Amino acid sequence: MNKFFANLLVAFIPNKTRRKALREKLAVKRIRMTPGNVVSIKGGITKNIHISGKGNHVLVKKTDSPLHLEISITGNNNEVIIEEGLRIESLCRIAIGTTPCPCNNAKIYIGKNTRINDVYFLLMEDNSTIEVGDDCLFSWGIYVWATDSHAIFEVPEKYPYNKFDELEEKNVKNKGHFIKIGNHVWVGMDVKIGKDTTIGDGSIIGWGSVVTKSFDQINCIIAGNPAKTVKHCRSWDLLSANMPL
After folding, report:
1. Are 80 and 108 in contact (CB under 8 A)?
2. Are the C-beta atoms of 62 and 43 separated by less than 8 Å?
3. Is the CB of residue 92 less than 8 Å from the CB of residue 67?
4. Vertex 146, ends 217 and 207: CA angle to 5°?
5. pLDDT tens-digit map of 76-97
6. With contact defined as beta carbons under 8 Å apart, do 186 and 237 qualify?
7. Most Cβ neighbours (<10 Å): which of 26, 36, 38, 99?
């Protein structure tokens, strides 16, 4: 059914409960996965879920609005947990592993009542995690990657690049392990959050910042490339600065 006419049909149903049920029924649900995986979703899905491997688990708890959600998992025993109250205005992309590089035992967790406009979460290393606390706000064009995507390794001095494959052992130096974002964190537009970083509760990450280290202090403004703390004892509210708090 054409999306415009589907929305028009829903709008003319007087009962709120029935409107919500029909929205969920009309939502596009594309779920493709190999046997041995579990997907549990409560709420509308308007994007794709693709899972390849075994023992993977996706749980999306109750939400009041359809989710523009895209999940891709390649590997075994990975987990995506999304708590209730998530709201996505544009798109949330979640990826664990890729076809040439499967990932195992990784986990992405998104806490309650978080709002997302456009974010890409990525894990590619075994046993790595991304954790987002409750009541967070993500703007547009945000990348939260607990990985560099490609390996960096030691080589002998002046060693020719076209002979790297002949090395007996490659000592990889840049494996990603975690990203932890606290409760009530506002992540501004075009922010990049890299591997092995922590953001404290109540903090704000300024527009275009690149986070490459941990900020454990709470209620701070973090900004810059690379990001640094620019203000202490600051937090935020969903209301506009022009509105009375």
Report:
1. yes
2. yes
3. yes
4. 55
5. 999 999 999 999 989 999 999 9
6. no
7. 26
